[in-house]
């Protein structure tokens, strides 16, 4: 009898501790749910919003091809780039882009505000900087300043470079006469060149934007975690390819000759080279969206200046709209970062 009473008293005295442990376990389960839910939402929103940069011209110029063929091609590149980075950096699939952005010790619900906002914006077909939108809430002020500086320079460099290049080549490759003279024999060569340039660009974009997709997950992934995340990404890609890029694909379709395979090849090549040389100068994350919009802006100005001067106003309007849209993302991301700081207090 005395023994039973002692056991009961011991349990009663330690009940608060058991209750505390139960709360901790529930809190950990909730945080794990937020981590995986955040990854899922961020993966879809980032790929859906940024797909126009790398695969937009590919989808536009191959609109007659079956979607699953295009998906299979892009999926092979994705798998190779992800697994190569995982092996090279000992489990880090972001190629060091998150070295200065550690995973928070706790993951409260408000960290979902950023990917959810990006998801809503993407559904409206507005291209924004997913780097600013997702990474700002995890980053220090110093890191954010570095990302903004690198992205602004990237936009200016892309605009000036594309402007100069297209002032040289626009008459030869973008005029109506040049497009009409693209015979079937040459078209086959350009088709091979376009798929090659797309593979190169797609791999360079993934190296930059894996940070935005994987910021919710541990910085060193185990093999099961790698396979789980890869399966999720391939499923998201299948949905996006089946819908031909969604509403945001209109940004590319509105630009001059983007359905022409030669034009699409040149855009992908120039953009890929910019990401390769400028994006890999250091491991600071950058907005690939700003660089892409810069390439399109410089290209449009050159083409309209040389070939369509009577429509220059239209070109400036399109460029202004695109620039305004990407700045919406910057403003919203900064607002969300401030909101999260408020919740932390």
Largest β-sheet summary: none
Tally of DSSP helical segments: 14
| Topology order in helix (H) and strand (E) letters | HHHHHHHHHHHHHH
Proportion of helical residues: over 70%
- Overall strand count: 0
Q: Based on helices, strands and strand pairing, what is the structural class? A: mainly alpha
- What is the general shape? globular
Compute the separation of the termini in Å.
Answer: 51 Å
Overall residue-averaged pLDDT value: 81
Residue windows where pLDDT falls under 50 for at least 5 positions: 1-20
Our Rg estimate from Cα atoms comes to: 24 Å
| Proportion of residues in extended strands | under 5%
Number of domains: 1
Report on the architecture of this protein.
The protein has 345 residues and is an all-alpha fold. It has one domain. It is 76% helix and 0% strand. It is built from 14 helices and no strands. Helix 2 packs parallel to helix 5, helix 4 runs antiparallel to helix 10 (223-242) and helix 5 runs antiparallel to helix 14. The longest helix is centred in the first third of the chain and has 40 residues, at 15-54. It is globular.
Short description:
The protein has 345 residues and is mostly helical. The protein has helices at residues 2-13, 15-54, 56-61, 67-88, 113-123, 130-135, 141-173, 176-180, 184-214, 223-242, 250-253, 261-279, 288-307, 312-344.
List the helices and strands and how they pair.
Blueprint: H1 2-13, H2 15-54, H3 56-61, H4 67-88, H5 113-123, H6 130-135, H7 141-173, H8 176-180, H9 184-214, H10 223-242, H11 250-253, H12 261-279, H13 288-307, H14 312-344
Helix pairs in contact: 2-5, 2-9, 2-10, 4-9, 4-10, 5-14, 7-12, 7-13, 9-12, 12-13, 13-14
């Amino acid at each position: 009898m005395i023994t039973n009473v002692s056991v009961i008293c011991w349990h009663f005295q330690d009940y608060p501790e058991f209750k505390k442990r139960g709360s901790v376990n529930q809190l950990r389960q909730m945080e794990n749910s937020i981590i995986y839910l955040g990854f899922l939402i961020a993966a879809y929103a980032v790929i859906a919003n940024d797909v126009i940069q790398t695969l937009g011209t590919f989808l536009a110029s191959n609109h007659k091809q079956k979607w699953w063929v295009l998906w299979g091609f892009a999926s092979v590149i994705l798998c190779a780039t992800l697994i190569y980075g995982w092996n090279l950096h000992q489990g880090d699939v972001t190629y060091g882009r998150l070295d200065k952005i550690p995973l928070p010790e706790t993951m409260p619900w408000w960290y979902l505000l950023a990917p959810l906002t990006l998801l809503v914006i993407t559904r409206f077909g507005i291209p924004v900087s997913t780097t600013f939108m997702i990474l700002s809430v995890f980053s220090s002020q110093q890191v954010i300043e570095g990302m903004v500086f690198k992205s602004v320079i990237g936009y200016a460099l892309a605009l000036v470079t594309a402007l100069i290049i297209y002032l040289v080549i626009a008459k030869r490759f973008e005029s109506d006469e040049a497009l009409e003279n693209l015979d079937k024999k040459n078209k086959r060569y350009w088709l091979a060149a376009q798929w090659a340039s797309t593979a190169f660009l797609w791999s360079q974009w993934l190296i930059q934007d894996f940070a935005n997709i994987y910021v919710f997950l541990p910085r060193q992934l185990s093999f099961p975690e790698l396979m789980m995340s890869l399966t999720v990404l391939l499923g998201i890609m299948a949905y996006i390819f089946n819908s031909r890029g969604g509403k945001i694909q209109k940004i590319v379709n509105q630009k001059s000759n983007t359905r022409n395979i030669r034009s699409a090849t040149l855009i992908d090549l120039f953009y890929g080279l910019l990401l390769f040389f400028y994006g890999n100068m250091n491991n600071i994350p950058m907005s690939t969206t700003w660089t892409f919009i810069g390439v399109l802006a410089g290209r449009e100005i050159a083409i309209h200046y040389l070939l369509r001067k009577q429509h220059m106003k239209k070109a400036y309007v399109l460029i202004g709209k695109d620039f305004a849209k990407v700045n919406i993302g910057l403003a919203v991301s900064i607002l969300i970062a401030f909101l999260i700081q408020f919740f932390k207090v």
